[in-house]
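Before we proceed, please read the two lines closing this message. Tell me what the token row says about the fold.
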Amino acid sequence: MAAEDKSKKPKIDLKARLGKTNIGTQAVPLPVPGQSQPPPSGAGGKSPNIAPPPGISPGIPVPPFAQAAKPVAAEAPPPKPTAVQQTIKVEVGEEIIKEREKAKKRLIMAAVGTALVGIAIGYPVGGAAERNARGKIVVENAKTLASDVKAANEKMKELDTLLAEAADKLGKKEYPAELSGQLASINIPFDATKVDGSKISGLKGTALRQLLNFTSGVEQLNKKKDSLKSLLDFAKVPVEKAWKEEKEPVMNFSVLFRSDQKGVIAELVPVKEPFDIAKDWPANYAVMKPERTQQGMKSVEKKLNRYTKGDLPGGGDPQLIPVDPVTTAAFTSQEGIRNLRKAFLDLRTELKGDDSNPQNPIVGLIETGDNLATEIQKITTGGG
């Protein structure tokens, strides 16, 4: 019976009778008496206590013709935009974005264009400024270099004048003793520090070769000048002695003969106290004889007889024979005079040159310096 009653029980269309209502954005069905309703979503899991309409007791089904109970009033949500409105909104948004992108591109292109124009204008101006600044440095360096070359040339001309005066004295057999001090106080102020990379920029190949030759020549000249000073100090006494002996020749050397196991040996020995060739010769005199010792060769004073007659070496002791001073001039004070004169000649040739051989003339440092100064001067006047 229970099953039969159940089958005869009329069906109630709850959807049609109860309908749906919108609470917020969710559809919440009206409560049906006698049934427990699930909590609406978004309610935090809590079931709202909704009382049945008045006059209806729980557990009694609602008649079909009964009106659906009105839900609790809720705040109406804002109307949804229509499809047209959404389309307009989307289209307007995309159009604005596109325009913004175009404007951004135009701004970038304008900035790039401005930069390119600035570079196009600034490059030649900046390059010219850089070249102008560089040119000023080159000119200033050239002026300094030309001034240094001229200063060196002035000193070389001064040196040549001193050498010329000293050479005249030597020709008169007057020793130029003051020249030693003059050479010590004079120096040609030019060396490799004057020609580093930054200071020779702008020089042409010809001028650069002249500058290198000039620098090397001046350095050698200063060395030769110092060597001449040392020679002047060393040669004073023997040269003055040689000039004196030209008037009054003396015996400076003798030949010593002595016996050896293989025969007679001759030795050339200096006379300790040379004697006048024009006066009487002494019968015996002292010489400085070299001998080998444990410490090496050593000059030992020996007083021996002068040979007069008989066999050589004659007797037990060696005998001495004086040597004509003319034949020993090559290694006496006369040779010192020749060396001194040659040193003067070589140094003056370095300064003034030598054109005695037209096929191979020697250009002096003074002429090289003058030519070099002229070439450098062209840079300072814009002609280089």
Remarks:
- The CA atoms of residues 200 and 208 lie 8 Å apart.
